[in-house]
Amino acid sequence: MSRPMHTTTLKKWQHDHEFNRTNASNETKTLRVVILTAAMMGLEIAAGAYYGSMALLADGWHMGTHAAALGISLFAYAYARKHASDPRYTFGTGKIGVLGGFSSAIVLQVVALAMMFEAASRLFNPRSIRFAEAIAVAVLGLLVNLLSVRLLGTEHEHESSHAHNQDHNLRAAYMHVLADALTSVLAILALLAGRFFGWLWLDALTGILGSLVISKWAIGLLRDTGHILLDGRSDDKLVDQIKTTLESEADTRLSDLHVWQMSSHDAAAIISLVTHDPRPVEHYRTLLQNIPELKHVTIEVHKCQDAQCIPGD
């Protein structure tokens, strides 16, 4: 008769499923940027209505859509943190930040298409602009955007230098404020050209160019986050590292390997090994301890009965 195993004994082979490793400061930085963006949106819309400037009104509503998208990022941080230990999430809430980035990328793409449509319309139907007021508010908007880029940029650049440690939610927020800064620069250049050279068409042309750049950023973010959300295979470098580490053992070959991202930071793997001389599973798990992003590993070991069953023998 088998003896019951005490719960404390099982803990040796158990691990947590909290794969939400986002730096807490990212949430705080995003909140500050949301406040800045919303305040600037209100100022631009009010100034546009008072001075009769459609350019400022359009840019104000454009910042409003970005404020909403940044709000999505902020919600994703808060939700992931609150439900980090919720057992209903099999692999934790690590993908919520990725989902936030994916959702923000969709908003970013919609903004780009709306900008292109509006710019194309103005290319054929130029509108009068009160340049002095519009330029002043556009410069203020650029300063706010640059401050937002600075708030988010340091952490984003640090994480971008580590392929397995990118916070896609932060990346989405960073792209939104960078897009705002870009459109502010283009707007200022176009307004200056319109004021001093009468080139009203340049305002529309720069809007089209800006929308194309923003669209490219959005598509890249959609591709990267979508790959993680659909449990796409992790990058080849990680896969090769796992394969090389395990097959460095004499008389051992991988018969099956699945590696995917559970969050922007953490990966999981299901591994099947074939060997003539099986070792305990813990032995193979120990070999993988030097791969920090590999957080959840399931290993099965098959004994090879046939002398020719392992390739290369």
Molecular structure report:
A hairpin with a 5-residue loop joins strand 1 (252-261) and strand 2 (267-275). The chain is elongated. It has a three-stranded mixed beta sheet with strand order 1-2-3, covered by helices on one side. The chain starts with 6 loop residues before the first helix and ends in a 10-residue tail after the last strand. The protein has nine helices and three strands; from the N terminus they run H-H-H-H-H-H-H-H-E-E-H-E. The protein has 313 residues and is mainly alpha-helical. Mean pLDDT is 76; it is low at 5-10. The chain has helices at 7-10, 24-51, 54-82, 94-124, 131-160, 168-197, 200-229, 236-247, 281-287, and strands spanning 252-261, 267-275, 294-303.
Sequence-ordered SSE layout with sheet pairings:
Blueprint (H helix, E strand, L loop, with lengths): L6 H4 L13 H28 L2 H29 L11 H31 L6 H30 L7 H30 L2 H30 L6 H12 L4 E10 L5 E9 L5 H7 L6 E10 L10
Parallel strand pairs: 2-3
Antiparallel strand pairs: 1-2
Offer a quick outline of the entry:
With 313 residues, this protein is mainly α.
Count of separate DSSP helical elements: 9
The helical percent reads 55-70%
Give the assembly state of these chains: single chain
Provide the low-confidence segments as ranges.
Answer: 5-10
Strand/helix succession: HHHHHHHHEEHE
Strand content: 5-15%
Report the biggest beta sheet as strand number plus sense, adding barrel if it closes.
3 strands, mixed
Number of strands: 3
Strand line-up in the sheet with most strands: 1-2-3
Sum up the overall morphology in one term: elongated
Cα-to-Cα separation, first versus last residue: 43 Å
Mean pLDDT: 76
Structural class label: mainly alpha
Using only C-alpha atoms, the radius of gyration works out to 26 Å
